[in-house]
Amino acid sequence: MNFQEVLNKSRPLVGPHCKACLICDGRACCNQIPGPGSKGSGRVATRNYEGWQDVFVKMDTIVPKGKIDTTLTLFGKTFKYPIFAGPVGAVAMHYSDLYSDQTFYKTLLAGAKKAGICAFTGDGMDPAIMIDACQEIKNQDGLGVPTIKPWPKEIVLEKLELVKNSKAFMVAMDIDAAGLPFLKSFTPPAGRKSVQELKEIIDASPVPFMLKGIMSEEGAIKALEAGAKAIVVSNHGGRVLDGTPSSASVLEKIAKVVDGRMKIFVDGGLRSGVDIFKALAMGADVVLVARPFVNAVYGAGEEGVEVLVETLGQELKDTMEMCGASDLASIDKTMITR
């Protein structure tokens, strides 16, 4: 099975918002909220995709022939590719009730593990989402990254206990989820956090803590001050604020100011192994791909996840082969141009 066949199977199953496009670039779903689209004008999701297309790779095959190594070691774990499945929530509402969040995460985590990578899980108003996600991560020997919404501190600390019991090797908070409607109306107040508030949360974390939703150099510095071990350069797929730049356009500046002091993940419109190579060359350590994994799960379950991972992984290997890179450490900014 190839990924086109997975998409063909997914298309009639994912509901009215997602069109299961061959290239998920935000054009067809546009600004359908709730759903997989973008907020306001709908341009941010499209801008994310286009941002990577404005970067070009430089071919160089006058280099010694050798094996291409795509393996990544992160916080004591080794993965086949620097590609993780990003967090997606409320799949029954946004796509279709073929899957609940619980069954979606069970399938995604298992498929990701078989493919040699790792998946993020999400969070929501229903406490069972996080409870079940953490249990599934435990079932996969801790190979998963639970993502906590920016709830009040007391709730976050309760969820960190679930993370501890899950044996997860890392935990994330999507701090940019402050723009989601259900968090804005939450009582007690949820959403934005000060550096000090984040530091208190991060100090209580049993595992390395990641902040997702960093889109500026200033934000990256604050994440460092709070004690984060990793960040995700992300605008939440355009779902929380219109008028933001693409993640591709800010990645290099953020990587420069971080200067190796935190691991850098990036998401937003990365749809091929060539895109992934560009992101690595621009300073990312790991790339997150989210929406295509929804189609992978709906189209062919665990097998669909494996097909997508191998498709992206082989494209990354091909790009490394043609651009003179032998391993992830050898990919740098000299291999791209604009």
Automatic annotation (TrEMBL):
The keyword Oxidoreductase applies. SUPFAM superfamilies: FMN-linked oxidoreductases (SSF51395). The keyword Oxidoreductase applies. Residues 1-338 form the FMN hydroxy acid dehydrogenase domain. It catalyses: (S)-lactate + O2 = pyruvate + H2O2. GO terms for molecular function: FMN binding; oxidoreductase activity. The active site is at H236 (proton acceptor). Glyoxylate binds at R239. Keywords: Flavoprotein, FMN, Oxidoreductase. Belongs to the FMN-dependent alpha-hydroxy acid dehydrogenase family. This is L-lactate oxidase. It comes from Dubosiella newyorkensis.
